[in-house]
């Protein structure tokens, strides 16, 4: 009748879609992208600007009033900061002046050392002092005693908890950490505390920096080679991967089924007294798993057969995307600009957190005894504001990257595949986005930032309420986090479609999201199939490039110096290669997605007059076949 809807609902949905398309086409009568645009979502633009100003202002206050030494260095039992002249710190001087204490100059004492590192129920802070260097050995002699300030090294002071025997320790983040704590540290931690092993790792990384740099360059070269393969052999590559995957799953299922049959025959031939119940579970589990694999293979085969036109569309769009990069080769390097901006924002975020967190003041009682640190409400609010601003800026840069790429690609498509395209398409797309639609991408990124911010608050609340002790509350928090994560993925997907429409027509964010959803719902199976195929191909491409770079680095490092610790350099090569390949394929994925929406928009606008189409006839007839009833979007 009509898929998931009744005939009446389907007709109403189709009439609504026709009206939306008619209104949209009336606004854009020119055969291409609109030349006249307006500034959109100005309220969100000003809110984003205010957020930046607030972030900078809070950071400035933190830099002016903060003291990072408080976080970088420890403190002693009096509240003096190690490695610092505390006589110049007014609040420390004022707090200690309430008792018979005074601020101290610890410039030459940078390390925090606990005289009694593992107390039973006592406050460990009362045993903290600042030392010039951490004790290098454990001793039981009187002359090696470690005492509170101005206390003599006597056994009598040991009884009064004023002096203690020293224990061997190493400086870690300006703290003296015990090197041997029996029945407390595991063997893995003890191994990491081995300085010889750590020095070997540092030396191997330092000696391998050239290999890591070459691997990054090789990953970029392999990405372009992969692009050429997609440009000229996309059909063969994609269809081979699709059928090879189905064949691999079916083969694994068949082999597991034969194995379960063999295990069953072996079990039946065994004397009942010698058989085990586990043997029954083994072959039954393997058989069920094999059947599941065979069912998956059958479903994928049917999916491939009935969606051959959609897979062919993925092939054609993959070829088109490769052609985009041959025309606009600098497009692959554009993500470096948002990446540099992101690194700058992240650096400022960490710096501002460091300074703002260090504005916390110590507390002393009326007797001048140090009570510790307690963050006030103003400090907590400042940290939350800085966190939210960072999330908003981070998502804004992601949205900016997607919108600029979509603008350059859609302009390429509607200019007869670059034949009538003006020079500097990336720069013009960037300026167009910043001048007209900064507010639009700020709107979309604000939604994602709010979801991420709420998820982080849920994690803090979970820790605050000690959810681990309550399984019911733990399950509720887990379910809520799962729902929020799924909702975030859904919003990010809708935002990406909205950014494409923003880049194409310069709409506001809400109108762009509505138009993007209309295009998506008009061919849901087509978009789903294309997304699945391209994501799978892109994943295989990233995996292949990363593995090749890592394997090459392994062969070189092993032959160059067999005594070198190779695990850490290889891990860095893997991470760097994957990041380089991901940067390339993120652009490729966005290019394919933009091309799909451009083709669907082109057909919707010029389908009645094929001569005005910008796509090829083959791509037109492939995309024209809807492959799915549109009623599934009627909800």
Cα(first) to Cα(last) distance is 17 Å
Q: Could you give the order of strands across the largest sheet?
A: 1-2
Strand content: under 5%
H/E element sequence: HHHHEEEHEEEHHHHHHEEHHHHHHHH
Query: How big is the Rg?
Result: 32 Å
How does the helix and strand content classify structurally? mainly alpha
Count of individual helical segments: 19
Average pLDDT confidence is: 76
Query: Strand count, sense and closure of the main sheet?
Result: 2 strands, antiparallel
pLDDT < 50 runs, ≥5 residues:
1-5, 181-199, 273-279, 626-635
Shape, principal axes of CA atoms: globular
Count all strands and give the number: 8
Residue share in helix: 55-70%
Protein described:
There is one protein chain. With 635 residues, the chain is mainly alpha-helical. It is built from 19 helices and eight strands. The chain has helices spanning 7-27, 42-65, 69-72, 90-96, 155-159, 187-192, 195-207, 209-268, 277-306, 308-327, 336-357, 377-414, 425-436, 438-464, 471-505, 509-522, 524-560, 567-606, 617-624; strands spanning 111-114, 128-131, 146-147, 163-164, 169-172, 175-178, 362-364, 370-373. The chain starts with 6 loop residues before the first helix and ends in an 11-residue tail after the last helix. Residues 1-5, 181-199, 273-279 and 626-635 have low confidence and may be disordered.
């Amino acid at each position: 009748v009509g898929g998931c809807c009744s005939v009446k609902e389907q007709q109403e949905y189709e009439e609504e879609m026709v009206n939306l398309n008619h209104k949209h086409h009336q606004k854009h009568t020119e055969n291409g992208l609109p030349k006249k645009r307006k500034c959109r979502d100005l309220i969100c633009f000003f809110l984003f600007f205010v957020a930046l100003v607030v972030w900078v202002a809070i950071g400035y206050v933190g830099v002016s009033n903060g003291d990072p030494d408080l976080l970088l260095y420890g403190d002693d039992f009096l509240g003096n900061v190690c490695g610092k002249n505390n006589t110049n710190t007014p609040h420390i001087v004022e707090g200690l002046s309430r008792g018979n204490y005074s601020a101290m100059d610890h410039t030459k004492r940078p390390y925090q050392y606990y005289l009694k590192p593992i107390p039973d129920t006592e406050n460990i802070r009362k045993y903290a002092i600042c030392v010039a260097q951490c004790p290098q050995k454990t001793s039981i002699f009187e002359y090696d005693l470690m005492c509170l300030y101005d206390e003599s090294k006597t056994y009598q002071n040991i009884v009064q908890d004023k002096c203690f025997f020293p224990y061997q320790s190493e400086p870690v983040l300006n703290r003296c950490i015990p090197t041997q704590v029996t029945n407390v540290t595991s063997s893995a931690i003890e191994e990491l505390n081995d300085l010889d092993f750590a020095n070997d790792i540092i030396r191997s990384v330092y000696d391998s920096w050239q290999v890591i740099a070459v691997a990054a360059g090789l990953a970029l070269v392999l990405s372009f080679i992969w692009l050429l393969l997609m440009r000229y052999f996309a059909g063969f590559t994609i269809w081979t991967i699709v059928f090879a995957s189905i064949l691999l799953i079916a083969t694994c299922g068949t082999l597991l089924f034969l194995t379960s049959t063999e295990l069953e025959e072996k079990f039946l031939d065994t004397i009942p007294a010698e058989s085990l119940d586990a043997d029954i579970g083994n072959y039954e589990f393997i058989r069920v798993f094999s059947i599941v694999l065979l069912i998956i293979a059958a479903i994928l085969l049917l999916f491939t057969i009935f969606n051959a036109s959609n897979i062919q569309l993925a092939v054609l769009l993959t070829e088109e995307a490769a052609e985009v990069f041959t025309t606009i080769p600098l497009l692959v390097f554009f993500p470096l600009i948002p990446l540099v901006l992101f690194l700058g924002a992240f650096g400022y975020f960490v710096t501002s957190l460091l300074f703002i967190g260090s504005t916390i003041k110590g507390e002393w009682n009326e007797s001048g005894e140090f009570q510790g640190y307690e963050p006030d409400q103003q400090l907590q609010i400042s940290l939350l504001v800085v966190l939210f601003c960072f999330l908003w800026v981070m998502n804004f840069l992601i949205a900016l990257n997607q919108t600029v790429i979509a603008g350059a690609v859609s302009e390429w498509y509607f200019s007869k595949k670059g034949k009538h395209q003006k020079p500097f398409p990336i720069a013009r797309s960037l300026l167009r986005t910043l001048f007209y639609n900064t507010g639009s991408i700020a709107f979309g990124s604000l939604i994602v930032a709010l979801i991420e911010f709420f998820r982080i608050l849920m994690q803090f609340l979970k820790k605050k309420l000690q959810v681990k002790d309550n399984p019911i509350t733990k399950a509720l928090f887990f379910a809520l986090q799962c729902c929020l994560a799924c909702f975030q993925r859904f919003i990010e997907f809708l935002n990406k479609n909205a950014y494409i429409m923003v880049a194409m027509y310069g709409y506001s964010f809400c109108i762009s999201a509505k138009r993007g959803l209309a295009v998506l719902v008009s061919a849901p199976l087509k978009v789903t199939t294309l997304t699945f195929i391209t994501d799978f191909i892109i994943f295989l491409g990233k995996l292949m490039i990363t593995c090749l770079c890592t394997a090459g680095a392994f062969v070189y490092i092993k032959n160059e110096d067999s005594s070198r610790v190779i695990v850490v350099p290889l891990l860095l090569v893997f991470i760097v290669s994957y990041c380089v390949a991901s940067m390339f394929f993120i652009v490729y994925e966005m290019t394919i997605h933009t091309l799909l929406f451009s083709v669907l928009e082109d057909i919707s606008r010029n389908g009645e007059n094929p001569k005005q189409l910008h796509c090829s006839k083959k791509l037109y007839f492939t995309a024209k076949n809807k492959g799915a009833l549109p009623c599934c979007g009627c909800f």
